[in-house]
């Protein structure tokens, strides 16, 4: 097998941050010896999350077993996911913002046609529905647990309490047409074909789209992690994976 040097588009501060958290985890569990140091394990986790490297590639690159690579990655992901903000914390942060932007991107997964609960009719592909809340500056504040792709955005939002929480805190939300009928403080564009809308409705929809464009850019930033472009892991691990990516995103140096 050939081995070659590579690079990961993350700063050394990410490595130090995750290595520190893993070192604390090892002290809490009383770990006495590991094949890799906390810093090397952090690098394994970052390579998996950012570049989507498989366990086999990580095993070869770091001279560890595949099972060890899998265990190291799962431990690192769980450590990061535990640091992700809750919905209540995100709404508390949002109270100091002018508004927030909820969105429900579909994270593609590898499933066959028989897996109907994971098939999104809107996107015409298999995936997992993850609700995301973004601030006016394009910074992701919160991500929800993953639901099957067949779940509609408005149902997912109500399931996670995304409609009620901002309304209680009087936080304005600018959402897309998938949240039609949400009520509360959620604003959605006018429905209907463009040619059938009045000039005033078209102007409102243009302004609405400009506001929501910030949220779309934020999701593109999250998907810089190649792992999220096509998830091949068990669907039970997707929630912790997305939350781990969010934790790294929130700890990006400015």
Automatic annotation (TrEMBL):
Provide this UniProt record's keywords sorted from A to Z.
Endonuclease, Hydrolase, Metal-binding, Nuclease
Fetch the InterPro entries from UniProt: HARBI1_dom, Transposase_HTH_dom
| Entry cofactors | a divalent metal cation
Stretches assigned to the Transposase Helix-turn-helix domain: 34-83
GO molecular-function terms, A-Z: endonuclease activity; metal ion binding
Q: Can you give the residue ranges of the DDE Tnp4 domain?
A: 103-249
Record flagged with keyword rRNA-binding: no
Q: Which Pfam families match?
A: DDE_Tnp_4 (PF13359), HTH_Tnp_4 (PF13613)
What's this protein's name? Helix-turn-helix of DDE superfamily endonuclease
Organism field: Streptomyces yunnanensis
């Amino acid at each position: 097998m050939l081995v070659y040097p590579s690079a990961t588009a993350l700063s050394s501060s990410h490595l130090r941050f995750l290595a520190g958290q893993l070192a604390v985890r090892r002290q809490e569990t009383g770990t006495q010896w590991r094949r890799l140091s906390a810093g090397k394990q952090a690098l394994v986790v970052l390579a998996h999350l950012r570049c989507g490297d498989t366990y086999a590639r990580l095993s070869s690159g770091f001279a560890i077993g595949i099972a060890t690579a899998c265990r190291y990655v799962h431990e690192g992901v769980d450590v990061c996911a535990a640091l992700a903000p809750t919905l209540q914390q995100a709404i508390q942060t949002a109270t100091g913002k002018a508004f927030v932007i909820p969105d429900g991107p579909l994270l593609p997964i590898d499933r066959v046609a028989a897996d109907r609960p994971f098939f999104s009719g809107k996107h015409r592909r298999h995936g997992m529905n993850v609700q995301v809340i973004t601030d006016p500056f394009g910074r992701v504040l919160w991500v929800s647990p993953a639901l099957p792709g067949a779940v509609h955005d408005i149902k997912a939002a109500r399931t996670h309490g995304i409609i009620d929480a901002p309304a209680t805190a009087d936080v304005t939300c600018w959402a897309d047409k998938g949240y039609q009928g949400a009520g509360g403080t959620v604003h959605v564009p006018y429905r209907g074909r463009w040619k059938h809308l009045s000039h005033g409705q078209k102007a409102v929809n243009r302004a609405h789209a400009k506001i929501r464009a910030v949220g779309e850019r934020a999701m593109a930033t999250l998907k810089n992690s190649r792992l999220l472009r096509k998830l091949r892991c068990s669907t039970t691990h997707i929630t912790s994976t997305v939350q781990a990516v969010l934790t790294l995103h929130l700890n990006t140096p400015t």
